[in-house]
Amino acid sequence: MASFTMEDIDPSLAESIQSGLEAVEERLHAAVASSDPMMRSTAPYLLDAGGKRVRPVLVMLAAAFGDISEPQLVDAGALVELTHLATLYHDDVMDAAETRRGTTAAHRVWGNHIAILTGDFLLARASAMSANLGSEIVGIHAHTFERLCLGQLNETVGPGESDDPFAHYIDVLSNKTGSLIATAGVLGAKIAKAPESVVSVMREYGEAVGVAFQLADDVIDIRATAEESGKTPGTDLREGVPTMPSLLLRAHVAEHPDDAASANLLAALDADLSSDERLAEVVDALSVHPVVDETEKLAASYGDRALALVDSLPAGPARDALTAFTVSLVRRRA
């Protein structure tokens, strides 16, 4: 996760967070265990591939504004990560992705049906955890999952004729990414019995940092190597999935029809990108276009909004740690 490490924060708080994350990791491995032979192979697949554990980290950081020793935080951290893992199985099928976290995508190994059912299995396990945390948490988790589904649906369907494509895209990001990150912060603060004002800020913060995170991901998808990001560069472009750079390029061409180079690049984006060589050529060309810099600036603006929200929280080691975490998310390069 970019530059965020436990060395960046107060040693006592770092010890508490690290202890919590280790317990979350144990809970995650227990949660993906199954007596079914197939599920024993598929359910731990992406968990074992690694990952940043952004959401469990945020659960613990938010809890630091209250009682970080609350035992239920372990289930909360595992709950949000299991939900995230489930969406990865589903998203990779939707996007026909080749790789995930530096390894072959699950649907490329076992097929679409098994990958989708594995995601469903993980959601079932996550739902069981939410039930252990009480009816309020069940409601929060259910609403979050609803938003995750709507985000994927709206991305798939695309904006209507009267919709602003940029507003539509930000709404998709808010649902697909911001909702679960916000839930991680809310659960951490609620379970740790932090002040209600902290819960409210974490909800708004999660939405802002989630959009910033995903816009940064749009840049990484174009400018990072497969080794750096763990994904094939340009996967979204190949599948015709809208990203902020492609939306900005489309708008630029509409406003500047005399820009032949941009028009040719847009035509290439809309053409067949099934060839790895052709995809690489288009990614290289797009990577130096100003629309990618513009996307990076937009990501920074949402990141600044998130940092301003952090600044409104009570001063102390928890706020300092959340600031370092936020910077690592919105200014990352892979």
From TrEMBL:
Keywords: Magnesium, Metal-binding, Transferase. Its cofactor is Mg(2+). The keyword Transferase applies. SUPFAM superfamilies: Terpenoid synthases. InterPro entries: Isoprenoid_synthase_dom_sf, Polyprenyl_synt, Polyprenyl_synt_CS. Pfam families: polyprenyl_synt. Belongs to the FPP/GGPP synthase family. This is Polyprenyl synthetase family protein. It comes from Dermabacter vaginalis.
